[in-house]
Amino acid sequence: MTSFTESMDIRVYYEDTDHGGVVYYANYLKFMERARSEFLRSAGLELDTIEADFGVMFAVTEAHLLYHAPALFNDMLTVESSLTLIRGARIAFNQKIYRKSDRTLLTSGDISLACISREGKAARIPAPVVYPLRNHLTPKEIS
């Protein structure tokens, strides 16, 4: 297995900021959500296809964020996502958001998700979903 980090660039729009032009704290979670979707896409997985084929979805169960510096209106950001855990019904990511121009770390976070059925009950992550993620896991934690 190799270490893998998926990067995605996002521009800060006016709608992402407060009155002072600083990104509103909850919007970092939106940026991370988009980047996790792109991470899965880079592994050949689409969330809508996973639901259609296996009847499961992913729901955030924990989000631990640290805010290091503010992002500002019109900044170009880079969101880096690393998969850190696949186990049973759990999947977890470490994500970092940088200002692209100077690589200043703005926000870092550990996000845990549960695989759930359409009825909202925990469900084991289907093997055809786990398999393509094996080469994207950092560190080596699969069970």
UniProtKB/TrEMBL annotation:
InterPro entries: 4-hydroxybenzoyl-CoA_TE, HotDog_dom_sf, Tol-Pal_acyl-CoA_thioesterase, YbgC/YbaW. It comes from Mariprofundus aestuarium. It is an enzyme of class 3 (hydrolase). This is Acyl-CoA thioester hydrolase. The keyword Hydrolase applies. Its EC number is 3.1.2.-. Pfam families: 4HBT_2 (PF13279). Belongs to the 4-hydroxybenzoyl-CoA thioesterase family. PANTHER family: 4-HYDROXYBENZOYL-COA THIOESTERASE FAMILY MEMBER, ACYL-COA THIOESTER HYDROLASE YBGC. GO terms for molecular function: fatty acyl-CoA hydrolase activity. The keyword Cell wall biogenesis/degradation does not apply. Keywords: Hydrolase. It comes from the Bacteria. Gene3D superfamilies: Hotdog Thioesterase (3.10.129.10).
